[in-house]
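User: Here's a structure from my thesis project, written as structure tokens. My advisor, Dr. K., wants to see whether a designed sequence matches the one we expressed. Can you design one independently, without my sequence as a hint?
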């Protein structure tokens, strides 16, 4: 093979991780990138998403964040409030995120983030999308991975690649099969949590001055209570107020199959937050009957490996997380950028050697797994702190909220300046550039 750019890259799934990976490989100069997606188009959940500086740094290198920024909200602070009273437990001002970390913290519409990535991909002639086409089986992992696909209308077919990037999300069939083929399993960890995702239009809220103030603020608000919380922020040029809840999972707990979403009743939703303050009640009451959707929040125990031969998992396929740190999509997009960095470091005369490809993928895993595991754990831990019921632990947490202005540490880890510094200042691509040779050598190969 003349050049790493001639490698045939197959991406499974056109979610945030898959789109980001395809674009990252194209920007590195790879010429043959095929993305296979089950859905017939980018049918993204109608919901908002937080885009922290660490992911904007990656999107900037992929040259696609300016259009995303145009309709996003530049977050200037967060307000953590007691759900029952609306009394503020802590307020964290974030006026200088852009100055500190080079990029702002944005909130936006998922369709805007996905659309920005997709538009970036469409400008790259190297990327071909195959919608309505699912991977159903991995036939081999090396020396060349072979996959069987099932198009929605048509006969199954096989594709041989040089590298497969499996970004097929939390229900990843690639993960399940890869681990089974390695003689292990991927066990789910029961979070006991579910979420309602809601979007309200400005026209529905503007009659209420308190609601309008929330919509016009540049603030992320979190109302917390025992076992539950609500996070809310403006998106889409403040034309939409995005609300995401977390509550005990009662609907999905009994199901044995991996159900992820279900239509829910408005009455049940109002009941869950019945003891929250009148402002929250008025907001939730605006949700149209029949438009309440509930999601099971699922995570997995850390996987024994993310890589088998020339097949690598990324995003929710290998490190699904609770949303309490707002880093799931960010981590998925970062993964793709690190993968592109690692694979492009394989020397030209080694490109036909699957062992070198596998080792480059392994470097990605070694660089990303400890870091993403830490963030996944932190998101779970933060949720436990937010959801404390009455008692000594809650009293201590509330004291820490009160003292947070002095200590720089907030029990809501998302809003905590020390955690933000750790996550927002970490340039994962630069880290891969700096560490690749050392980690590659540690795998028992010559220096790449
Ligand atoms: C309530 C909630 C709030 C969140 N808030 C945030 C936030 O503010 N910030 C943030 O960064 N993250 C957030 N996240 C997390 C984030 O949404 C996910 O981590 C992220 O979308 C994962 O991206 P992914 O590409 O790995 O997977 P997905 O987005 O799930 O994409 C997987 C894709 O693969 C396709 N696919 C699946 N199987 C196959 C197959 N066999 N063949 C072909 N295609 C297949 C699917 O159709 C899908 O398009 C939140 C999550 C939740 C639940």
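Assistant: Designed independently from the structure alone:
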């Amino acid at each position: 093979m003349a050049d790493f750019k001639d490698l045939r890259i197959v991406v499974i799934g056109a979610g945030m991780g898959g789109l980001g990976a395809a674009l990252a490989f194209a920007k590195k100069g790879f010429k043959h990138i095929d993305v296979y997606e089950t859905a017939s188009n980018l049918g993204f959940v109608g919901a908002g998403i937080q885009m922290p500086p660490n992911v904007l740094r990656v999107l900037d290198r992929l040259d696609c964040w300016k259009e995303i920024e145009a309709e996003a909200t530049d977050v200037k602070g967060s307000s953590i409030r007691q759900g029952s009273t609306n009394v503020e437990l802590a307020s964290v001002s974030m006026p200088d995120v852009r100055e500190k970390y080079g990029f702002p913290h944005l909130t936006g519409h998922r369709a805007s983030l996905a659309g920005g990535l997709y538009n970036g991909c469409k400008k790259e002639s190297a990327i071909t999308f195959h919608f309505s086409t699912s991977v159903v089986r991995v036939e081999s992992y090396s020396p060349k991975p072979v996959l069987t696909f099932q198009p929605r209308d048509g006969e199954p077919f096989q594709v041989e690649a040089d590298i497969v990037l499996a970004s097929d999300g939390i229900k990843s069939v690639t993960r399940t099969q890869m681990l089974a083929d390695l003689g292990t399993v991927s066990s789910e960890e029961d979070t006991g949590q579910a979420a309602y995702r809601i979007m309200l239009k400005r026209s529905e809220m503007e009659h209420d001055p308190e609601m309008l103030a929330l919509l016009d603020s540049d603030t992320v608000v979190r109302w917390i209570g025992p076992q539950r919380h609500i996070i809310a922020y403006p998106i889409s040029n403040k034309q939409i107020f995005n609300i995401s809840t977390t509550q005990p999972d009662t609907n999905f707990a009994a199901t044995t199959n991996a159900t992820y979403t279900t239509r829910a009743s408005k009455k049940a939703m109002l009941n869950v937050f019945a003891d929250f303050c009148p402002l929250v009640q008025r907001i939730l009451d605006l949700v149209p009957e029949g438009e309440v959707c509930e999601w099971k929040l699922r995570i997995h125990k850390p996987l024994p490996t993310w890589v088998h031969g020339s097949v690598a998992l990324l995003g929710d396929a290998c490190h699904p997380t609770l949303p309490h740190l707002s880093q799931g999509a960010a981590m998925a997009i970062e993964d793709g950028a690190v993968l592109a960095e690692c694979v492009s470091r394989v020397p030209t005369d080694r490109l036909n050697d699957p062992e070198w490809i596998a080792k480059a993928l392994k470097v990605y895993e070694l660089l990303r797994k400890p870091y993403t595991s830490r963030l996944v754990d932190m998101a779970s831990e933060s949720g436990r702190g937010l959801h404390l019921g009455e008692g000594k632990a809650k009293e201590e947490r509330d004291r820490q909220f009160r003292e947070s202005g002095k200590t720089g540490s907030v029990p809501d880890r998302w809003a905590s300046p020390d955690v933000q510094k750790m996550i927002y200042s970490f340039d994962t691509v630069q880290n891969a550039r700096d560490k690749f040779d050392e980690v590659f050598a540690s795998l028992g190969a010559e220096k790449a």
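When you compare it with your expressed construct, this may help: The domain at 4-46+112-188+302-442 is CATH 3.50.50.60 (FAD/NAD(P)-binding domain).
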